[in-house]
Amino acid sequence: MQEQFSSLMPIEDIQYIGEGWDNKIFLVNRHIVFRFPRRKVAVELMERENILLNNLPSFADVEIPLLKYQGNPITTYPYPCQGYEMIKGRSGYQVTLSEKDRSENIIILAKFLKQLHGINADYARQIGAKSQGYGSRANIEETVKILKERVDKIMLRKIININVSCLLKEINIALKLTLPEEHCFVHGDLDCRHLIFDGKKLTGIIDWGDTDITSRAVDLDIVWTFFPSDCHNTFFEIYGFVDSDTWKYARFLGIYCAFSLALYSIDLRDNLLFRESVNSIKRINSDLLIDEKFS
């Protein structure tokens, strides 16, 4: 780091602040966030994100990471890394928000998603976005398959007592949906970890490595998982029309995301993320859970 980033010198403080599926994250000198890939598959995502962050427009009311450092592989570390100015605040699952607090932020989210999804797909490709094809969450059959695998793990480890018959009903509904051919530029991984709140206000969106050109349902699931249903109409008033099957599939993706994060949070032993995941499931369909525990 010293050889590649002389402008950071002197390095007075390095804090380990967490990790995701793909990266370990450190805070350097209290204001620069550095992300280091944990595995080779994450390198392509980071390289894509680097291109995007240098070309994305400014968004109304929310910040995105301002890329400042791009590190190259070295003898002792085989992957590139990236550094950007820390966006002040904490992730959505780390702050205490009432349902009213969440509803009051739906306008900010709606404006952000309207602008993001309005970016021309051809331009998005030019600045690094790629259609992920079969691996996309817009592939209903593949998403159902992965959800079943993760639910099996949850039940085997007795993490949550799931109402299986209710879940199967949700799956059967999803399998009957038909998504429109119209695709748009999406964030691709818009969950509670990647919403940044300063106090009780949504001020930032992070982690842009999973951007895709696909169904808007892939991003709209956050409306179901994080925001109360009584503010959804307000979202539509700003964002605009969403067809019925896309909205229903966004709901199903919310279920998929919530169960996935519940399993992931157990591996991290992150009680806050677990509680947020369980509350997301309840917010979408409380009948999916019989009870839950964190062990």
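The record above closes out task 2.4. Task 2.5 opens with a second protein, given below.
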Amino acid sequence: MFDPYIEAHELRALLVTKEIRPREAAEFFLARIERLNPKLGAFMTVTAERALADAARLESAGAAAAGAMPLYGVPYSLKDLTWTRDIRTTMGSRNFENFRPRADAELAVRLREAGGILLGKTTTPELGGRPTTEGGLCPPARNPWNPEFSAGGSSGGAAGQVAAGMGPLAEGTDGGGSIRIPAACCGVVGLKPSRGRISFAPVMGEGWAGFATEGPIARSVRDCALMLDVMAGPVVGDPYWAPPPRKPFVSAVQDRPQKLRVAVISESALGPVDAEARAALERACGVFRTMGHSIEPIQLDPAKRLVDYTRVAITAGIAAVPIKNPDAMDPVVRQAWEAGRGLSAADYLNAVARMHNASREIVQALAPYDATLSPTLPSAAPRLGLPTDNFEQWLYPFIQFTFPCNATGQPAFSLPNGFTAAGLPIGLQIIGRPAGELELIALAAAFEEAAPWRDRRPTLP
């Protein structure tokens, strides 16, 4: 019927002009999920009945109403951490295996009202507590480029879905890199928005001391911007409000920034960066120089400054979840849960205060630069089945480039940036100024145009 890797904005154009019906789009991707999901573990729950009901509702809409919906007929998924009314939301945990929320998350409402078709809930490690998607209730999310490797985490199911052509759009969450990590592992585009850009209403005001946010995963910068326009915006009473953009985010894709000053962070004290990731970063810097931008390596190590405060914020956030049966938990996540339960209120508040002060200094140091580049990860995707002993010794070196943006609240993309010799994707992280998504989207789209990647696809049965 159509290419499973069709981008959301292209599919919407076919749907609005009635070349394809919403039901046909839904049935096409549901059939692909049925075929591929048992091999890849991207979906925890497939909402086929809901998808067909969404399609039927959209087909009864008039032409004017259809044209006004930015996602008219476009299928999407929600991560299994995100509340969906009367739809099972397990959070990857055996303790919540049959949990059905009493309300929708605000962003779930917005995506539905924008004309999207919900395909299902994507897999996550328990409570989003790993940078790979394995170890809890959900099946392991396998990398479409090589199923022996991880799709990353904690939004591994979401990124795997998009990379495998099981749907053009996916919502993810990011509390330490959980959108950008799987985007890098799977060779797709993931955007962590600024703090306060997307509301957690009505479930909570913030996640993990403001570290966590929700955001889009897609195959292009344009589609991420399109989805962000739908998801963004505060709800009255939210504790964080990002300033509203002066124009739609998707319109920034057409902008072409000139002669920017771009910083480069290529290493941290937390661990080595492998040769292929370093080479990919150097190639990307060459692309930016060709585009006319000034590239300046800087001596700044935000990961070293922030790691201790991050550990407290994340473990406390995990410990805040009420668990009735700790023995049923993933051992790795249980370690974090128990560590968080051992913190005092003073420990937590002191760490958060120090985190904010250090973050302020980091953002001020980066203020002269229009954007900052780094590897998304120090290496390509790891193999599934990571050892659970001494997990933290592996964790922070692996997320060394992603978690600082959660502390500072800056927006950050992970973009595809080539492949290893073994054929696994490599990611490039582009970090923007606080609340600077418009400028960040423009720069990311220009890089995407200068170094296109979308014609390369995984070989799937």
